[in-house]
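dude i think i finally got it to work??
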Amino acid sequence: LMERGWKSFLVKVHNEAGVTAKLEPESPNSKPMLIRSTGKPDPDVEVAPNEVLNRFLEIEMVRRPPMKSTLSGLLLEYRIIQLYSRDEGKPEAIIGFNVGQGTQDLGFRNEVPILFTAVPAVEVTFKVKDFDGSPVMAEFRITDDKGHVYPARARRLAPDFFFHDQVYRKDGEHILLPPGEYTVEYTRGPEYLKKTRTIDIPHEKEYELEFDLERWIHVADLGWRSGDHHVHAAGCSHYDAPTQGVTPQDMWRHILGEDLNVGCVLTWGPCWYYQKQFFEGETSELSTDNYVMRYDVEVSGFPSSHAGHLSLLRLSEDDYKGVETIEEWPSWDLPVLQWCKEQGGVAGFSHSGWGLMVDDDTLPSYKMPPFDGIGANEYIVDVVHGAVDFISAVDTPVIWELSIWYHTLNCGYRTKISGETDFPCIYGDRVGLGRSYVKLPEGPLNYDDWAYGVRDG
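look at this
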């Protein structure tokens, strides 16, 4: 085998039964290393550390032409299997095959333990330079000529997220790659050009590559600071196990790698009781003069969710008026919005268009939406109390999310609007797909000023 790479093997099939079904590989060593989010606030599933260690293998059967997707029914034929090893060394794997449900051999004669030798990959150090020559974090998507993504997504754990192709590396960090030719796409958010190059990794222990990033615009130099007020470290595409979501350090890499000046990581229903330990009531100590991260709250998976999810920013307290469990929170949005604003927070509705669907392409639409979802449903009531600072945009259909906003503007209310991604729920591609730019004075970036900018427009 090859560490972090694919190797092909020939499988001899004695098909005495003349089966024409698919030949399916199986192995306990290729089971998932993780358990996808169940949405529960306190999930009780786990993947033990020793299980993660043993699940080092990824398996693919070659079914593309000239190979056929199923067995031919001939007495003897050959199939090609490809194996990917996460680790180097002398791993043992149990490899088996079946031809469909109910075909497991009771004597387990369809599986065999094999002691492999996995050759070490090349440690490839990335020298990543920004447009001005300074060291920086960037996004990299690495593929081979067969379409394989590296590292293999199914064998990733944080800080490399398994649900999208790219990984993030800063200047001086490395990635393990087998010798061979690869295509690398690299960029750093929407203000940078996406560049592509072919790399050839030699048969060496270590190798070094240089990547120079290129901006097409630098909005921060014009006084505008970007931010995404709605990203998550748990739930949706994240996992419940082996850990309940990911850490602030993991999220920070993604914020830097997308050149997102402000990242608002919202703790919400999934893994609530574990993730709320990261709430500090202030910006993270990881923050710098130009990039800040803060943990706050999305009221989602709470009793009021049916009335619309809420993004609550700049909180000093994350438990509503001393409650201890999610079930104790209010069952409608207005008191939660008012509680947020009482502590100096900034409050708005998330993914505004859900529940406000209309069959129309006119803005604003005069058709009546059903008000039956998790978007800005209660907004129409709460806005008259002065309780809503903004509604969210970008991540739901434009007519749905903006019609209700325009109608309230026409009535004299001046609620603001803010772009969001709802990563990794509506969009799992990257943080900052939906972002807002706030005009700020020169000097170190101040989160409070940015949040107030969203509030004040």
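The chain has seven helices and 24 strands.
im so relieved honestly
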